Amino acid sequence: MSSSSPKSPSSSSRPLLPYGWDADWETAFAPYAAQGLVAGRVVRVDRGLCDVVTPGGTVRADTEFVVPRDPMKVVCTGDWVAVDPEGGDPRFVRTLLPRRTAFVRSTSSKRSDGQILAANVDHAVVAVSLAVELDLGRVERFLALAWESGAQPVVVLSKADLVPDPVTLAHLVQDVETAAPGVPVLTVSALHGDGLDVLRALIGSGTAVLLGQSGAGKSTLANALVGADVMDVRAARDVDGKGRHTTTTRNLLPLPGGGVLIDTPGLRGVGLFDAEVGVGQVFSEIEELAARCRFHDCSHESEPGCAVAAAVDSGELSVRRLESYRKLVRENQWIVAKTDARLRAEIRKDWKRKGAEGRAAMQAKRGHWS
Ligand code: GDP
Ligand code: ZN
User: Fold this and answer.
1) Nearest CA owner, ligand 1 atom 20
2) Long-range contacts of 82-85 (CB under 8 A, 24+ apart)
3) Which of 226, 277, 323, 328 has its Cβ near the most Cβ atoms within 10 Å?
4) 212: left (phi > 0), else alpha (psi -120 to 50), else beta?
5) Atom 24 of ligand 1 has which residue's CA nearest to it?
């Protein structure tokens, strides 16, 4: 919150508070309020039309005037917008307030455009099931995506009831913590309700999304947070005061204890997209080490004075984590390079060389350790 913001939102926009409206949005919206436009948050989008929650209820709005050619600027769930005052149906979205954060995914393998999945998300809850063996590489991948969006990640180890031994559970938490510097790691059992309060408190202000593999327990968590079956909640009749509105499928729901949950279908299977910054944040300790390598362009393979290799040697950094870092860096470069065939060819050549050298170096090291 900036200190220049008004102390509290005006009474006319109070109905938007459960949807995440705050003093900063009020400030951003002020010029449009002066034009007589109405503020609202997009709770659902489909083909050029969207549902917008406004102080007067949910309205249907056309995005024709704000849809630019850039696919990243398409109106999406979570956006704050200015719509026409009462009159037409549908109304028109007149402007999109600048986003604080955004989740983006690469579309098909042929097209490398980004597709925007959710906007203005503050908390990215990465659900990880304790019913199956931990895959830290996968956790790191979701964390990269979360950091990249600008949201603060939280890891929720779900189905904690399946790990009744507290010592084992503590070890699992510790393992995940090493893969998630700067990220709170919670254990939750949606079945027994354990840990839900801590999660609620963490995401109780602002907007959250649930990420994670299929089967990680996201739907169950969403239902527990919303306090009802989300599918029922989503299909609830949404009346805009004129009785015009019929059933809608909302992708954005206020939570009873405060906060907002966005759950769009696309977010669930999301992959990396140009997540260089996010990857750097997930592996912040490796990037810190790398800053101390003798050569600024050190590849941490076999160069002298390599702080990363030294940390691996001393046991401070695990080989697993270093390899996971490399994998995500490469994967990300690959996605970025899809837009540029020449760059791709260059990277490929480079990987081949580094891959061969790296494998040789790692093998030499492994032999050395064992
Ligand atoms: P999603 O695919 O991530 O949405 O996962 P679901 O919410 O559908 O959950 C996958 C499975 O895990 C379902 O069979 C749930 O009943 C089960 N599950 C979810 N949460 C818990 C929990 O806290 N404890 C246990 N034992 N099972 C759970
Ligand atoms: Zn190095």
Assistant:
1) 217
2) 82/29, 82/32, 82/35, 82/37, 82/38, 82/39, 82/40, 83/37, 83/38, 83/40, 83/52, 83/54, 83/59, 84/37, 84/38, 85/36, 85/37, 85/38
3) 328
4) left
5) 159
Q: Which residues line ligand 1 (CB under 6 A)?
A: 158-159, 161-162, 189-191, 212, 214-220
Q: Domain 276-369 - what CATH class?
A: mainly alpha
Question: Distances in Å between the alpha carbon of 281 and those of 29, 74, 144, 223, 325?
Answer: 32, 27, 7, 30, 11
**CATH 2.40.50.140 segments of the chain:** 11-96
In this structure, the residue with its CA closest to atom 6 of ligand 1 is 217
How far does the centroid of ligand 2 lie from the alpha carbon of residue 370, in Å?
A: 22
Which of 220, 261, 268 has the most ligand 1 atoms within 8 A of CB, as the residue to mutate?
A: 220
Q: Which atom of ligand 1 sits closest to the CA of residue 220?
A: 7
Q: Which ligand gives the minimal distance to the CA of 290?
A: 2
Distance in Å, CA 211 to ligand 1 centroid:
14
* Ligand 1 atom nearest 192 alpha carbon: 23
Q: Are 65 and 75 in contact (CB under 8 A)?
A: no
Q: Where in the chain is the domain with CATH 1.10.40.50?
A: 276-369
Ligand 1 centroid to residue 138 C-alpha, Å: 18
Q: Does domain 11-96 have CATH number 3.30.413.10?
A: no
The CATH homologous superfamily for domain 102-263 is P-loop containing nucleotide triphosphate hydrolases (3.40.50.300)
pLDDT digit string (tens) for the chain, length 370 residues: 444 444 566 778 889 999 999 999 999 999 999 999 999 999 998 877 899 999 999 999 988 887 766 666 688 999 999 999 987 778 899 999 999 998 877 544 444 456 788 999 999 999 999 999 999 988 998 998 889 889 999 999 999 999 999 999 999 999 999 999 999 999 999 999 999 999 999 999 999 999 988 889 998 999 999 887 665 554 444 444 333 333 446 789 999 989 999 987 777 666 666 677 788 889 999 999 999 999 998 989 889 999 999 999 999 999 999 999 998 888 877 766 665 555 556 555 555 555 556 556 555 555 444 3
pTM of the model: 0.79
Let me know: does 159 contact 196? Beta carbons within 8 Å.
no
